[in-house]
């Protein structure tokens, strides 16, 4: 009996060991299925090579209620990956204080992508540019002693590393990296650093090495990339950004790295005073196909696939509230045709021959003076893919390939997945165009339904911050407001009926008041870093008050030494006949922000305060004025927008949530404003009693505003 039980125990033990080994082997196999590696041909996910099409969708530029539909449309359009930046300033508004709620819920966004079966490329940065205020940096970094951004500077590196670790740790704790079975297959550190690297010399080179080593040491289990960084250190992959990476990309800096395109600009950001950039579906398709054919490209990301909205004060200097509205999914998340459909067709054509593209050998040849061909062939399976390229932008041509004739439209590429039959040509668009339908559903023309609140013009005696010089704008406002008052009390020794107030400013807008009377305003533009204001003013003998409201329309987002940028007034003079009184170094008083901001008059709970009164007789003549009205939500589920064409410049709120800045009065060379329609997400609205608040700087007319639904023709 004893011997029997010994054998039983041994058998049970062996079975347990086998189960443990089997369980371990199964876990290892599962891990292998999630491993992301790469070689000189492509990314390799779970042992399988992939050609990946990706699209940028930025979570804070839309709403959680919009995310599922945006992602579903991206997937239907043939995308495999959603790419997003991580926005440092919204997540860490103060050192060590974090916010991942609402539109900032990064984990929820990534889990929604995962739920729909797509991958994620997470561009942590944490410098992102992205036409986002201060390039995504929280402004409190500016006040860190001895800090210099984006170089071998210990204070900056410490904060950058801390935030990067925070994000990586959050992703790991949620199991979101592919190495954990999650959707994140790529991460990015830094962003287009090579654009400014020369400004820092050897310190810049050391910073690149440090950033790469820091990222790699975080053990995410997925590759890291650096975009527009030809010297990206191993194991990081250098990637291309731009519109023509099939022509401009110098290639991976190692034969063991794949060709990745992290930003294929589907349009371009628009600035106030500028015109929209329209990039055709044909041009995008041409350059994507060329990148795959010529550069062996295996990852292409569309920047943007959905641009969305720069809500609040999130846009960078002079950038409009609507972002990349010309993307395949427009600002409202609606299909922009034929761009969306044409790219979907191209994705299908390339994926139909992806096995050969990923395994075959490439050769190229000339088909004519401006024509070329690329063939990828598999020796074992006999697969063959051809790309026939016509670089002539004017003329269609007929080329000979493998004893067959092929007609190529101007500036186009034909894809032949079997080296015989054309399944797609980049210039042949089979998708019908659609148009945006704007349907007004409510007007705001009844004056008796409007209320107003007049903001206050502070004088020198109203201020508590005093200086004997003109102080820098951003250092005082800390990006908590666009507005800074410069105030001065001065003595005019003799009357001057033809005086000129001269102001130079390195901000974006200035409004000047003398003795509480508005005498005029001026502004700069995206290309000019300063502007001048010259307005006549009659000055009697005695004491006068000058109040100048300096305005920023977003903070700068790029360039070296961002922490050193100067904004605000630089010189102030009173010129009277042949005399000039320089007031630059006089004693100035300062007030940060507006009274209405201090009172939070735009908040829903403050909409019934006693500060409001009836609308004035002539709103077009009023400056620095707040307006309020109430409206019901349109029926249905169509997108909603406010037409603010009758306004001047300011900001708008719905139920306490800012839908962004507006600047209708700034026209382009065709005398057109950059943007008139302002997106109001459905999630911002209630069925009834929605409170609309606007702050108007320069005399817009709220009676001309309309509420609209937005759709597209089928």
TrEMBL record:
Residues 624-690 form the Beta-galactosidase galactose-binding domain. It is an enzyme of class 3 (hydrolase). The keyword Cytoplasm does not apply. Residues 42-349 form the Glycoside hydrolase 35 catalytic domain. InterPro entries: BetaGal_gal-bd, Galactose-bd-like_sf, GH, GHD, Gly_Hdrlase_35_cat, Glyco_hydro_35_CS, Glycoside_Hdrlase_35. Residues 379-429 form the Beta-galactosidase beta-sandwich domain. Coiled coil: none annotated. It catalyses: Hydrolysis of terminal non-reducing beta-D-galactose residues in beta-D-galactosides. Residues 1-26 form the signal peptide. Its EC number is 3.2.1.23. Keywords: Glycosidase, Hydrolase, Signal. Belongs to the glycosyl hydrolase 35 family. This is Beta-galactosidase. It comes from Stylosanthes scabra. The lineage of its organism: Eukaryota, Viridiplantae, Streptophyta, Embryophyta, Tracheophyta.
């Amino acid at each position: 009996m004893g011997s029997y039980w010994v054998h039983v125990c041994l058998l049970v033990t062996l079975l347990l060991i086998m189960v443990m080994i089997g369980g371990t082997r199964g876990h290892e196999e599962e891990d292998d299925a999630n491993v992301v590696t790469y070689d000189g041909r492509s990314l390799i996910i779970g042992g399988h090579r992939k050609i990946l099409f990706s699209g940028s969708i930025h979570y804070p530029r839309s709403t959680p209620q919009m995310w599922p539909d945006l992602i579903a449309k991206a997937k239907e359009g043939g995308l495999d990956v959603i790419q997003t930046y991580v926005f440092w300033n919204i997540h860490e508004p103060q050192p060590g204080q974090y916010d991942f709620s609402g539109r900032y819920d990064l984990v929820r966004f990534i889990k929604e992508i995962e739920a729909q079966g797509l991958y994620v490329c997470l561009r942590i940065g944490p410098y992102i540019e992205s036409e986002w205020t201060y390039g995504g940096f929280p402004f409190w970094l500016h006040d860190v002693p001895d800090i210099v951004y984006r170089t071998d500077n210990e204070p900056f590196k410490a904060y950058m590393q801390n935030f990067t670790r925070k994000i990586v740790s959050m992703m790991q704790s949620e199991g979101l990296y592919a190495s954990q079975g999650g959707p994140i297959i790529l991460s990015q550190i830094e962003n287009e650093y090579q654009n400014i690297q020369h400004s820092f010399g050897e310190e810049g080179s050391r910073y690149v090495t440090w950033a790469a080593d820091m990222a790699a040491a975080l053990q995410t289990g997925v590759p890291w990339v650096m975009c527009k960084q030809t010297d990206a250190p191993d194991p990081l992959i250098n990637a291309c950004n731009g519109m023509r990476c099939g022509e401009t990309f110098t290639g991976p800096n190692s034969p063991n790295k794949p060709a990745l395109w992290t930003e294929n600009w589907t349009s371009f950001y628009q600035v106030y005073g500028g015109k929209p950039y329209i990039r055709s579906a044909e041009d995008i398709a041409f350059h994507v196909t060329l990148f795959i054919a010529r550069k062996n490209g295996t990852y292409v990301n569309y920047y943007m696939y959905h641009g969305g909205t720069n809500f609040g004060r999130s846009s960078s200097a002079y950038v409009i509230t609507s972002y990349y509205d010309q993307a395949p999914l427009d600002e409202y998340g609606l299909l922009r045709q034929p761009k969306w459909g044409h790219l979907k067709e191209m994705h299908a054509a390339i994926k139909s021959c992806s096995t050969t593209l990923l395994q075959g050998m490439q050769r190229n040849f000339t088909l004519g003076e401006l024509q070329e061909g690329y063939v990828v062939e598999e020796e074992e399976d006999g697969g063959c893919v051809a790309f026939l390229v016509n670089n002539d932008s004017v003329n269609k041509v007929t080329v000979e390939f493998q004893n067959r004739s092929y007609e190529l439209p101007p500036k186009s590429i034909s894809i032949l997945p079997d080296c015989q039959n054309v399944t797609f040509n980049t210039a042949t668009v089979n998708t019908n165009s659609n148009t945006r339908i704007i349907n007004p559903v409510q007007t705001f023309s009844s004056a008796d339904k409007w209320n107003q609140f007049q903001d206050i013009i502070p004088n020198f005696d109203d201020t508590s911050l005093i200086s004997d010089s003109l102080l820098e704008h951003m250092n005082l406002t800390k990006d908590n407001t666009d507005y800074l008052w410069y105030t001065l009390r001065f003595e005019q020794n003799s009357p001057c009926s033809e005086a000129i107030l001269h102001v130079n400013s390195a901000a974006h807008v200035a409004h000047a008041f003398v003795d509480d009377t508005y005498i005029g305003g001026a502004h700069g533009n995206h290309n000019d870093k300063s502007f001048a204001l010259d307005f006549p003013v009659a000055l009697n003998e005695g004491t006068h008050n000058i109040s100048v409201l300096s305005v920023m329309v977003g903070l700068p987002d790029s360039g070296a030494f961002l922490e050193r940028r100067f904004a605000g007034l630089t010189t102030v003079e009173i010129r009277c006949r042949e005399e000039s009184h320089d007031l630059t170094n006089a004693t100035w008083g300062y007030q940060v922000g507006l009274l209405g901001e201090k009172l939070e008059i735009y908040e829903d709970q403050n909409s019934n305060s006693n500060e409001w009164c009836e609308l004035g007789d002539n709103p077009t003549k009023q400056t620095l004025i707040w307006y309020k009205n109430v409206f019901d939500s349109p029926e249905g589920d169509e997108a909603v927008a406010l037409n603010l064409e009758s306004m001047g410049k300011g900001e708008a709120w719905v139920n306490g949530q800012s839908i962004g800045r507006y600047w209708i009065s700034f026209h382009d060379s065709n005398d057109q404003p950059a943007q008139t329609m302002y997106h109001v997400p459905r999630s911002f609205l209630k069925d009834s009693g929605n409170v609309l608040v606007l702050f108007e700087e320069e005399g817009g007319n709220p009676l001309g505003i309309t509420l609209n639904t937005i759709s597209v023709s089928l």
